[in-house]
Design goal:
Layout (H helix, E strand, L loop, with lengths): L10 H19 L7 E5 L4 E2 L5 E4 L19 E4 L2 E2 L2 E2 L3 H7 L3 E4 L3 E4 L12 E6 L6 H20 L5 H21 L1 H10 L2 H14 L2 H26 L7 E3 L2 E3 L1 H16 L11 H12 L4 H46 L7 H21 L2 H17 L6 H13 L6 H29 L9 H11 L3 H7 L4 H14 L2 H10 L19 H17 L4 H17 L5 H4 L8 H26 L17 H20 L12 E9 L6 E2 L1 H11 L4 H8 L5 E6 L5 E5 H5 L6 E4 L14
Parallel strand pairs: 6-7, 12-13
Antiparallel strand pairs: 1-9, 2-3, 3-8, 4-5, 4-9, 7-8, 10-11, 12-14, 14-15, 15-16
Helix pairs in contact: 1-3, 3-22, 4-5, 4-6, 4-7, 5-7, 6-7, 6-10, 7-10, 8-9, 9-23, 10-11, 10-22, 10-23, 11-12, 11-23, 12-13, 12-14, 13-14, 13-20, 15-16, 15-17, 19-22, 24-25
Length: 742
């Protein structure tokens, strides 16, 4: 009897199976996304405080079961057949801001009308998924689809460097063509979706591993292209981040204060606003203002290009560790973080992020080549980043200890040990001291002691957050710190119990992979991070990187109680986020190594994973980028001893006009503008009425010489004249002091 030899599964079969499994899993997990829904009317609508409305769930509605790894399918509220668009983080936002915000509670729906008017006379429906299944059911199918796609991809021949560069350039070219033909659609997809950013991430990853050709194309594709997309989204389309009202203009909260400091430095040579006592980013921002001729949008364009250019350099460095897929994961996760916390924002992340990216790359190269000097430069950049955007401060001593253990030569060579310890300490202290140097250059006053740390620590000890202690202590950090000392004297265990609370956010909440309301990648990110930890612990090829990454992760975890997740989210971790995302990239690379073993086993071949091509990258481009950023940051403090702006009337500089109610490219309808103004209304409710009562079309103007933001009639804005002022947009400081001279 002859034996039947079945054909081995081909890559096409594996990939087809993966696609089928993925579609079935998606339908099971998210039927509402494809129109498989149920709906019912909200009939018992109750008016609560402010703009907040509440209605209990209809009797026939069942809430989705809880999930850990997979985000919930969305519940949607419709007003007269049109869905409300803003998913609010809490009831307070709906109560104060309104304008179509909504969220589902445990027993009902909290929402507001789309325009802030009464709900009477309108019909409201709630729409929910047609079914809800246990998470493990689609979870198994998603995992099987992932594994099947990995085995199929692993059976394909490895890409040659030129082929990788060509494929990466082709993807970037298609995105560029899309920007030329349909710029609005591409920009919107980049900031609200995941498909286009993922394609771009693979493009940059392919170019990063594409030899010399890839290196030439890496910066245009990795930095200029996404910065152009940011400009289209914010400057041309007028999209807004919650911390801004219109396309990068009218900053709120911290962004407003950083903008104020930068403008003071630019105009007067010194800052009169202390805020939080950190002046590195205002120096950096004022330098960009100066070199761009005070064009508000060029400032943000170059700021984004600097961050993303450093990301491209890091991609080049890690491509030999993570391969194409691992590098793409790092780029993709970083983009999700940057588009939330950095893109078109006057926030310290825009200096902390590039410093963290470059420092991560230097540690990779230094650990690989066993060169202490390069690691010391990385430690200096990490420290400077922490001086810019404080956060996981324990990372710095942890990395300093790594340097001493790795390069100190042990107790048998005390001279070498002392030298390395002294040099590492000097690099760390010097980096942290850059803020003191910046303060000495541009600020002559005194900054408050303790600052935000006092409020965060109080929240940790009292099972609350920073806002309770800030408001209760009337914003006085010294007063709150005294209260913290009293609490610790009376009950020292409060520090331990509060610290344990922070780790609830690691699992299952996936703290580092929650991008504001976007929780789609919590499960995947958490699993990849765990896989990365396993790979670091057991893979020989990662032995050189094991020490410094584990040291940095220990520093991050030890820092979490003092930069708690419930205060500012993941913002305080900006400088060290590249390390977290690198861990996910290593996890993805390890997964594909397993897929390669499985693919070769199916073909009855050797089960050894293929060795990745080793790019001979070095620290030179990383160090050059770091020097450029540091010199750019120091420029105003060194050269701007006199006022740099002539007091020549109330003129509006380029990039600072937005027309509300007109027909040009920088136009917002009045309804759109008032909806965005609702964010500001949470803190400045009196402004909403002033704009609501304005009948004519008007222009928002960035006024660099008078009140920083004015609203004038549009005809005067066209001629760049002072014109009729309808309303001044006044924040904490609207009129700056006159130039002081030397």
């Amino acid at each position: 009897m002859s034996r039947i030899n079945f054909p081995k599964p081909s890559p096409v079969l594996w990939l087809t199976t993966a696609a089928i499994l993925f579609i079935v899993a998606a339908l099971l997990a998210y039927p509402g996304r494809v129109g498989l829904i149920q709906e019912a009317a909200l009939t018992n609508i109750q008016k609560e405080e402010g703009l907040l409305l509440y209605s209990p769930f209809p009797p026939e509605m069942k809430k989705s079961c809880g999930r850990v790894f997979l985000p919930q399918d969305e519940i949607l509220v419709l007003e007269d057949g049109v869905g409300l668009t803003i998913l609010a983080p809490g009831k307070k936002d709906i109560e104060l801001a309104g304008w179509g915000r909504y969220r589902s509670g445990s027993k009902g729906i909290f929402f507001s009308t789309s325009d802030g008017e009464e709900a009477k006379g309108r019909n409201y429906l709630v729409r929910w998924p047609a079914w809800s299944v246990r998470e493990w059911m689609p979870g198994i199918l998603f995992l099987a689809a992932f594994a099947s796609s990995g085995i199929g991809a692993a059976q394909l021949q490895p890409l040659k460097p030129r082929l990788a560069a060509g494929l990466g350039a082709a993807i970037a070219g298609f995105v560029t063509l899309g920007m030329l033909l349909w710029p609005g659609c591409v920009a919107d997809g980049f900031f609200t979706g995941g498909g286009l950013p993922l394609a771009w991430s693979f493009s940059v990853a392919l170019l990063a591993g594409g030899g010399r050709t890839g290196a030439i194309l890496l910066f245009p594709a990795g930095a200029v292209l996404p910065a152009w997309i940011c400009h289209e989204y914010f400057a041309v389309l007028g999209a807004s981040h919650p911390w801004f009202l219109v396309g990068g203009l009218l900053p709120l909260s911290d962004a407003n204060m950083h903008f104020t400091q930068a403008f003071e430095i630019l105009r007067q040579g010194v800052a009169t606003t202390s805020f939080n006592g950190r002046f590195l980013y205002p120096l950096f921002l004022s330098a960009l203002m100066h070199w761009t001729g005070e064009n508000a949008h060029l400032v943000q364009f170059f700021s984004a290009a600097i961050v993303l250019g450093c990301l491209a350099l890091l991609a080049r460095t890690i491509s030999s560790l993570g391969g194409i897929t691992g590098t793409a994961v790092v780029i993709f996760l970083f983009w999700l973080y940057f588009r939330l916390n950095g893109a078109w924002l006057c926030m310290t992340e825009n200096l902390g992020l590039p410093l963290g990216l470059l420092a991560t790359g230097l540690f990779i190269v230094g650990a690989r080549d066993k060169r202490f000097g390069i690691c010391a430069a990385g430690l200096f950049l990490f420290s400077t980043g922490m001086a810019t955007r404080p956060g996981a401060m324990f990372v710095l001593p942890a990395l300093a200890v790594f340097c001493v253990v790795k390069f100190g030569g042990g107790l048998g060579n005390l001279r070498r040990l002392a030298f390395v310890a002294t040099a590492a300490g000097f690099a760390m202290v010097t980096g942290l001291g850059t803020n003191s140097l910046a303060s000495a250059l541009v600020y002559k006053g005194s900054s408050p002691a303790y600052q935000n740390f006092a409020f965060s620590l109080n929240g940790l000890l009292t099972v609350s957050d920073w806002s309770k202690s800030h408001n209760g202590g009337k914003g006085d950090p010294a007063q709150v710190m005294e209260e913290n000392k009293r609490l610790l004297r009376e009950n020292p265990s409060l520090l331990l119990t509060g610290s344990l609370r922070t780790f609830e956010y690691l699992w299952p909440k996936g703290f580092f992979f929650r991008f504001d309301k976007d929780i789609r990648f919590v499960g995947v990110g958490s699993l990849l991070a765990l896989a990365g930890l396993a790979a670091l612990a057991f893979q020989r090829s990662l032995a050189e990187q094991r020490g410094w990454i584990f040291a940095a992760l220990a520093g991050i975890f030890l820092s979490m109680p003092f930069a708690p997740p419930w205060d500012a989210g993941s913002r305080p971790y900006a400088v060290t986020m590249p390390i977290v995302f690198l861990l996910c990239g290593l996890g993805m690379a390890a997964f594909f190594d397993l897929c390669k073993i499985a693919a070769k086993a199916c073909a009855i071949q050797s089960t050894e994973p293929e060795v990745r091509a080793h790019l001979q990258t070095n620290a030179t481009p990383l160090l050059a980028a770091a020097v450029f950023i540091m010199l750019l940051t120091c420029t105003p403090g060194i050269f701007s001893k006199k006022p740099t702006i002539e007091n020549a009337g109330r003129l509006t500089k380029p990039g600072g006009v937005y027309h509300v109610g007109g027909t040009d490219n920088h136009t917002l309808s009045k309804t759109e503008f008032l909806a965005r103004l609702s964010v500001l209304g949470m803190n400045y409710p009196e402004l909403q009425g002033a704009f609501q009562d304005t009948q004519d079309s008007f222009a928002l103007m960035v006024d660099w010489n008078g009140p920083r933001f004015r609203v004038v009639d549009f005809s005067s804005a066209l001629t760049n004249q002072p014109g009729k002022e309808i309303h001044s947009v006044v924040f904490d400081r609207s009129v700056l002091a006159k130039p002081t001279g030397d």
